[in-house]
Amino acid sequence: GDYTFLNRIIDRLNLWNIDQKEMFLYLYEDTQPLGIVLSSVFFNSKNIHTICIAHGYFPDTDSKLKYEGNNSNYNFVWSLSQAKFFNKDVNVTLLGLPYEYSMAKILNKNRIILLGHSGEGTNMFEYLLTYFHMFFVYNLLKREGYQVIFKPHPQDDKAYAARIFKNNTCPDLHQEIRKGSIFLGFISSALYEAKAHGLYTIGMDTGLMPYKRSFKVDKAFKFSEYKNIPKYIKSLPMERGRKTEPDRLKERFYRALSVIN
Predict the structure, then answer these.
(1) Is the dihedral of CA 78, 94, 215, 105 positive or negative?
(2) What are phi and psi of 201, to 5 degrees?
(3) Which strands make up the sheet holding 111-115, listed edge to edge?
(4) pTM as predicted
(5) Of 234, 198, 2, whose CA–CA distance to 109 is shortest?
(6) Distances in Å between the alpha carbon of 200 and those of 113, 168, 182, 241?
(7) pLDDT confidence tier of residue 200, bands split at 50, 70 and 90
(8) What's the confidence (pLDDT) of residue 3?
(9) What's the CA gap between 14 and 11, in Å, rounded?
């Protein structure tokens, strides 16, 4: 392959390394080719520090899966409860959601977002199983008069999702958060995001999956209990307890950096 771009990055960083200038190299991930090369090259550098900024919320699993961030010097995570997924020699620091956000201003109990689990290229059994669960709940809620929309996973086939859910799909997660929707899903990081924005979240049955949610939702249902979801949604109050607004991203980011310094 052509590694010209990667070589340029390493050459530039090595120049700074020679000058012994302290710098931080921010990585979106460190398990794919670009990320793992950069994190490995500079892992033992005394002045170039690699920081992996988490782009999701890791689920619990019994497998030996190595999550992103374990090859970097530091990790900025959404919650310190995620520290258990990292090696002991990896520094874990709280950032929170890695973007600017505020608490939801409205709640819309009639608008339900089903969060897709995966794409067909990951695990076909999980893919079809979760689609079956989603379609079951979709029809259940539609019969009760709810507006139900499916949010495909980024790796999913958008055209396939549109056919299954009769074009009732949405591409923009944050638009739905601003609308105050209720979110249902399995282990999706978007569930955690919705919860962090002060919205209602409902967990679906992960019993037949190798992963479990590592964060709390407002209510979780087994497959045999799905019939109770409409009643539960109807019982939810339109007002939630007053939530404290999160600090600005700039403040959270500098606070995370100060831990390193």
Answers:
(1) negative
(2) -130, 140
(3) 147-151, 111-115, 182-185, 201-203, 219-220
(4) 0.90
(5) 234
(6) 11, 20, 5, 12
(7) very high
(8) 65
(9) 5
